[in-house]
Write a structure and sequence with these properties.
By secondary structure, the chain is α+β, with helices and mostly antiparallel strands. The protein has helices at residues 14-23, 28-35, 121-130, 135-156, 171-186, 216-221, 239-247; strands spanning 3-7, 47-56, 59-68, 80-85, 87-92, 119-120, 164-165, 191-194, 197-199, 203-206, 209-212, 227-229.
Length: 248
């Protein structure tokens, strides 16, 4: 069994998770080849994936970007993950392609060229089911989005089927979440475990208005996880990052 340990001491989001998998050995070309199978091109600005190196303090980190119509994301945060099978592969992450616009600065980049498209859970599910993805990639992606829809539904008091994803319905967030599933499959990951998850404070401006942090849906997804309070404010764990951890 090959196990991935996620050390999300600085937080986690979909693109931070994906950047860590790229640093652990996932080839960008293989990732893009699989993501191009998703029917995301019609009516959308073109998208491209970019991988680069970034300095975070004394350490080198992998930076992953989804660019929509050529728009560049903002400043990244980072996370560290280690895939191991007796020996160790390890990688540092890139930035957050993020679920909420914020009313203050923090460690993650945000709102990097979202297409502004609201998609219902049923639409995203149909998109993933229609794409010729590997069976385990499809199953994992549906599980992650399904967990997120259920959490959002509980928070807003509506059935999961009626949940409309706002920021998460954007092309970049869909690519982040499905991309993590592609990465887990390419690296042969059978099990995912993680350390304590930082729980910060503050507020974020979203499509629903001003909300407290951690976001209510994020807290729903993290039930049963070990949370570690941290002194710095801001959103360091996004709903997409929490949904991926909850699913795996």
């Amino acid at each position: 069994m090959r196990v991935l340990y996620v050390d999300c001491f600085a937080g986690i989001s979909g693109d931070m998770f994906l950047a860590a998998l790229l640093d652990a050995g996932l080839p960008l070309a293989a990732l893009e080849q699989e993501l191009r199978k998703l029917p995301l091109t019609e009516g959308q600005a073109g998208w491209e994936l970019r991988q680069s190196r970034a300095a975070r303090g004394a350490f080198s980190a992998c930076r992953f970007e989804v660019r929509i119509g050529g728009a560049a994301p903002e400043q990244p945060g980072w996370v560290h993950a280690r895939a191991h099978e007796h020996g160790h592969d390890h990688g540092h992450d890139g930035h957050d392609g993020h679920d909420h616009g914020h009313d203050h600065g923090h460690d993650h980049g945000h709102d990097h060229g979202h297409d502004g498209h609201d998609r219902r859970w049923s639409q995203i599910r149909a998109m993933i089911q229609a794409a010729p993805l590997a069976p385990r990639v499809r199953t994992r992606a549906l599980e992650a989005f399904g967990r997120l829809a259920e959490a959002e539904g509980r928070v807003h008091g509506i059935p999961a089927e009626q949940v409309a994803f706002h920021e998460v319905g954007a092309v970049d967030s869909i690519l982040d979440m499905v991309g993590v599933c592609v990465g887990l499959e390419w690296l042969g990951i059978d099990r995912v475990i993680c350390g304590p998850i930082p729980a910060s404070s503050g507020t974020a401006r979203t499509a629903h208005g001003l909300i407290p942090l951690p976001a209510p849906a994020t807290l729903e997804l993290l039930k049963g996880f070990v949370l570690q309070p941290v002194p710095w404010p801001g959103e360091h764990v996004t709903p997409t990052g929490a949904a991926l951890l909850a699913a795996f």
